[in-house]
């Protein structure tokens, strides 16, 4: 019992950016203990909220694409319809025959369940995000694991990481236990800029919610601007998802995915 | 060797108990204050209930955005409707002089209104946006009688919870709760942009619900019934929309 409670109490130290250097101090690894204790990586809260986000984001993505197909034209300003000039048009057939697409056939219409699921998944995402952000602020998760360490808060540190990526150098051991500065900044942008923006632009499309604080949609330049922005912010999130999964695959898919499931980095990867 | 400490076990137990108790209480309160939509027992019910309950708590009395005259769309989109039925064509041939709106159900004085009866009630106008679930929208001026005036005239009974409204066209019906039915912008619409409401846009009579998506604004209304339960209507999901796979509450 005492052997096990030790690493848990020290967990915060492990994740502190300053503690993760090329020489990783790990009290258990140096102790002559017969028990193999893997290094902690992700807290239970991070793991649960991560996978809930994965499920709800994928549901939102598929259903969002379905909804988009019913009118693959985008406008700027308050109004826009098949009788007005679009800002741009996605060159795909539509699921409705009232949209001038240039194609002479209509795709299957899946809007009903797609809309139901889109909003249900949006609730899961928003509530999960709330729990994650509030808990993360309370237990200093952001400060300890995502805010770049003071010595990394410069362009040089960012450039070094990017150059390392370009050289396609394999990640060093410290990166199994803590994020580098580019990863940290990417996650902060996704968590504190892109997700709030996609929620805001989505809420702005609710005619009922807009009636309470009309600024929800007016600040975005109108209903159609909000819809167009919702599309672009979603695209940025999709780009993040693709890069995120690609980087995991390059670093070793299971090596990186397992800690997000079990919470621990395997004993053999620690040193 | 167990990795579960006693403290963790107790904490988890307490959180789980609080969670279950919280859900039970929330469900009880939601039922009591009418915060569960008629399609709230379906697969997507939890999401719909959260949306509807949140909207009822936040936006019960708020007004849909109104726009200046200069923003009225030059190309409003009428959307397609099924070819008119013979019943509609007969009314159209008679210039809608025999068109009746029957209001019945949980009301003190069930009444059939002609279009001129409705026009003799105080009329209002609003410049609001029609937003379709597909994504397009337009702004128009809508002229009509707030449904609340008509409901006042027939005397809605206190136990009323929903206004169910039917088109003359088959299988086209919707319902809204009393918050939306008595909302000052919910119009029995007879005019659009300074003229009569064109048939393509729902003339001679359309119920406009501007705080919800376009599909709640049913065209060619002939019948409104007031009820305390949606169970007796269709499949009991609230309207034709959930029967066709769409959400009953379309305020999102």
What do you see in this structure?
The complex is a heterodimer of chains A (271) and B (252). Chain A has 271 residues and is mainly α. Helices cover 59% and strands 3% of the residues of chain A. Chain A has eleven helices and four strands; from the N terminus they run αααβαββαααααααβ. The two termini of chain A are 25 Å apart. With 252 residues, chain B is of the alpha+beta class. Chain B has one domain: Sulfite Oxidase, Chain A, domain 2. Chain B is 29% helix and 23% strand. The radius of gyration of chain B is 21 Å and the shape is elongated. The model of chain B has no long low-confidence stretch (mean pLDDT 94). Chain B has a five-stranded mixed β-sheet with strand order 2-1-10-5-6. In chain B, strands 3, 4, 7, 8 and 9 form a five-stranded antiparallel β-sheet that branches.
Task: Output the keywords.
heterodimer; A: 271 residues; mainly alpha; two-stranded antiparallel ribbon; 4 strands; elongated; disordered N terminus; B: 252 residues; alpha+beta; Sulfite Oxidase, Chain A, domain 2; 7 helices; 10 strands
Layout: helices, strands, pairs:
The complex is a heterodimer of chains A (271) and B (252).
Chain A: H1 2-9, H2 11-15, H3 27-30, E1 39-40, H4 44-69, E2 73-74, E3 88-89, H5 111-138, H6 141-146, H7 155-166, H8 174-177, H9 181-203, H10 215-218, H11 223-262, E4 264-265
Antiparallel strand pairs in A: 1-4, 2-3
Helix pairs in contact in A: 4-5, 4-11, 9-11
Chain B: H1 6-32, H2 45-59, H3 86-93, E1 100-105, E2 111-114, H4 115-120, E3 124-131, E4 137-146, H5 147-154, E5 162-167, E6 173-177, H6 178-181, E7 187-192, E8 195-196, E9 206-208, E10 221-227, H7 240-243
Parallel strand pairs in B: 1-10
Antiparallel strand pairs in B: 1-2, 3-4, 4-7, 5-6, 5-10, 7-8, 7-9
């Amino acid at each position: 019992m005492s052997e096990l409670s030790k690493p848990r109490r020290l967990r915060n130290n492990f994740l502190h950016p300053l503690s993760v250097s090329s020489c990783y101090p790990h009290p258990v690894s140096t102790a002559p203990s017969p028990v193999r204790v893997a290094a902690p990586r992700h807290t239970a809260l991070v793991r649960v909220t991560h996978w809930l986000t994965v499920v709800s984001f994928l549901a939102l993505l598929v259903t969002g694409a379905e909804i988009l197909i019913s009118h693959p034209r985008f406008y700027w300003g308050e109004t826009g319809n098949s009788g007005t000039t679009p800002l741009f048009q996605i060159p795909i057939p539509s699921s409705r025959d009232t949209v001038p697409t240039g194609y002479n056939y209509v795709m299957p219409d899946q809007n009903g369940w797609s809309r139901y699921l889109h909003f249900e998944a949006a609730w899961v995402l928003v509530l999960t995000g709330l729990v994650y952000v509030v808990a993360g602020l309370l237990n200093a998760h952001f400060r300890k694991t995502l805010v770049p360490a003071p010595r990394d808060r410069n362009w040089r540190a960012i450039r070094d990481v990017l150059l390392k990526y370009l050289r396609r150098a394999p990640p060093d051991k410290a990166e199994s236990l803590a994020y580098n500065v580019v990863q940290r900044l990417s996650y902060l942008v996704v968590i504190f800029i892109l997700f709030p923006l996609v929620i805001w632009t989505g809420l702005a499309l609710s005619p009922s919610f807009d009636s309470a604080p009309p600024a929800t949609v007016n600040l975005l330049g109108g209903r159609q601007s909000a819809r167009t922005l919702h599309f672009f912010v979603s695209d940025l999130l999709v780009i993040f998802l693709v890069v995120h999964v690609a980087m995991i695959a390059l670093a070793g898919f299971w090596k990186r995915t397992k800690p997000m499931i079990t919470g621990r980095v395997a004993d053999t990867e620690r040193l | 060797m167990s990795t579960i400490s006693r403290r963790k076990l107790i904490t988890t137990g307490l959180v789980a108990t609080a969670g279950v108790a919280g859900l039970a209480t929330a469900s009880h309160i939601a039922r009591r204050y009418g915060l569960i939509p008629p399609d709230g027992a379906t697969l997507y019910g939890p999401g719909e209930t959260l949306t509807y309950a949140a909207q009822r708590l936040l936006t019960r009395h708020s007004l849909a955005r109104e726009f200046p005259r200069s923003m009225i769309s030059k190309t409003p989109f009428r959307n397609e409707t099924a070819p008119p039925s013979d019943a509609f064509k007969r009314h159209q041939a008679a210039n809608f002089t025999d068109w009746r709106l029957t209001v019945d159900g949980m009301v003190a004085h069930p009444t059939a209104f002609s279009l001129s009866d409705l026009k003799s009630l105080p009329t209002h106008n609003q410049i609001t946006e029609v937003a379709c679930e597909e994504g397009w929208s337009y702004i128009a001026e809508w002229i009509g009688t707030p449904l609340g005036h008509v409901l006042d005239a027939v005397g809605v009974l206190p136990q009323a919870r929903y206004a169910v409204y039917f088109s003359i066209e088959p299988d086209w019906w919707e319902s809204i709760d009393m918050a939306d039915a008595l909302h000052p912008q919910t119009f029995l619409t007879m005019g659009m942009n300074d003229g009569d409401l064109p048939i393509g846009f729902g003339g001679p009579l359309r119920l406009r619900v501007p705080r919800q998506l376009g599909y709640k604004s049913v065209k060619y209304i002939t019948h409104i019934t007031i009820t305390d339960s949606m169970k007796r209507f269709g499949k009991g999901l609230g309207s034709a929309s959930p029967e066709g796979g769409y959400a009953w509450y379309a305020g999102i």
